[in-house]
Amino acid sequence: MFVAVNRIRCKASVLFRGYKQQMATEDVKYNEAVQTLNEMQCNRMLTSQQKMNGMGLVVMRELLHRINISNDDLNQLKIIHITGTKGKGSTCAFVDNILRKHGVKTGFYSSPHLLEVRERIRVNGRPISTDLFTQYFWEVFDLLKLTEHNYEVKVPSYFYMLTALALYVFKHEHVSATILEVGIGGAYDCTNVVPNPVCCGVASLGLDHTDLLGNTLGEIAWQKGGIFKRGATAFTVPQPDEGMKVLHQRADEVGADLKVAPPLESYPMGKGLPLGLSGDHQM
């Protein structure tokens, strides 16, 4: 009996050591992926002026082609594209939560992250696991390395890589709807490669990134309205007159149906309903 127990303990010890070694190896691979991604922050792929002239969108479309994501793939992701100055992240989170409550498998791409970069890429409300992040990151990285000799931009910069990675993840995880948060502006943001979004949204407008987007609310609204697409319904919260006028112009230019979402308080269920996060972290 004593010998049998010792044998069981020995086997358990060997299995546990093997498990720890496997976990350590997986942690190393994940950390290598994150380190490689972080190094892309030093990659000055394009100047700000080139990005604002549309070159960034050309590069982004090339990246997607290199990792085998077609326009049809993007359309099948059923993308909801959201921009704005204040509240776009919260709007995305609300949309994601509402869809999941109705049984929809969602992909949610947002920025920035708080603790780990995996937080930017969520499937069904949860950041993808370290294993999935590692797997998909190296798949995308290897595909880009295989094709780099055919393109001027060999390796993308940080945000471009993350955007390509997110769309790759959502394609291979077979999500039913994707909530895509714009990084900066809209018209020339690298997320603006969606041919036919399900709909677009504009949260509250204000003066942000004025060195890139312009010094007036009208100029900034022009950038934000750049995500509107023909045939896709666009929604905006009530905006100051200057911004609203430009958003309507942008919608008319591409044939988008722009609707103004009434304030929450105008709905019977919305009266007195608190939104957002409670706590000292709220500013």
Structure in words:
Strands 4-3-2-5-1-6-7-8 form an eight-stranded mixed beta sheet, with helices on both faces. The model has no long low-confidence stretch (mean pLDDT 90). It has helices at residues 2-39, 48-52, 55-66, 71-76, 88-101, 130-147, 158-172, 210-213, 217-224, 241-254, and strands at 79-83, 106-109, 121-123, 126-127, 177-181, 199-202, 233-236, 257-260. Helix 1 (2-39) crosses helix 6 (130-147) and helix 9 packs parallel to helix 10 (241-254). It has 283 residues and is an alpha/beta fold. Helix 10 links the parallel strand 7 (233-236) and strand 8. Helices cover 47% and strands 11% of the residues. The protein folds into two domains: 1-39; 70-265, UDP-N-acetylmuramoyl-L-alanine:D-glutamate ligase, CATH 3.40.1190. The protein has ten helices and eight strands. Belongs to the folylpolyglutamate synthase family. InterPro entries: Folylpolyglutamate_synth, Folylpolyglutamate_synth_CS, Mur-like_cat_sf. GO terms for molecular function: ATP binding; tetrahydrofolylpolyglutamate synthase activity. Keywords: ATP-binding, Ligase, Nucleotide-binding.
Strand numbers in spatial order across the main sheet? 4-3-2-5-1-6-7-8
User: What would CATH call the architecture of the largest domain?
Assistant: 3-Layer(aba) Sandwich
Going by CATH, what is the homologous superfamily of the largest domain? Mur-like, catalytic domain
CATH top level label of the largest domain: Alpha Beta
CATH topology of the largest domain: UDP-N-acetylmuramoyl-L-alanine:D-glutamate ligase
Number of strands: 8
Structural class by helix and strand composition: alpha/beta
> What shape does the CA trace take?
globular
Instruction: Indicate the proportion of strand residues.
Output: 5-15%
Number of helices: 10
Number of domains: 2
Mean pLDDT: 90
Main sheet? 8 strands, mixed
Compressed to H and E, one letter per element, the order equals: HHHHEHEEEHHEEHHEHE
Radius of gyration: 22 Å
State the helicity in percent bands.
Answer: 40-55%
